[in-house]
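User: Okay, second chain of the day. Same drill as before: sequence in, structure tokens out.
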Amino acid sequence: MILALSVLLGVTAGLRSMTPMACVAWAAWLGQLDLASTSLAFLATRAAAYALTVLALVELVADKLPFTPNRTTIGPFLGRLLTGGVSGAALTAGSGESLALGGFLGSVGAVVGTLGGFRARTRLVKALGARDWIVALAEDAVTVAAAALIVLAHRG
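Assistant: Same drill. Structure tokens below.
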């Protein structure tokens, strides 16, 4: 189950790169995810939880700006692979499973989320005749809720 959750958490990184990182950091800081003996122990600090939350909030705003590049361009795409991988790794390592496998699965999920999220959002905007930022707000809500629920569900 934890491996599937790592993929799903990676998918959320494909939608909003910093949201799953913030969720993982909060879970670690609150003692719900044991990262103490891992290379990701820094995520279990209050500073990491707050900093990643600020970055996630900034991303939620920046995503709506007209000059923000598409998530499928190389920089944002690689960033999503990284944050999906780190989030997936933290979830598996914090559950006593392989950090490397979780990182790989989180990155795979990030590819799916990045490409699928981009396609879904552009199609929804066209199909609904809605402004992009309105569909983006719905995507924000889905991403935040999904990432939080996935991290909560890791304890089974």
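The chain has six helices and no strands.

User: Thanks, on to the next one.
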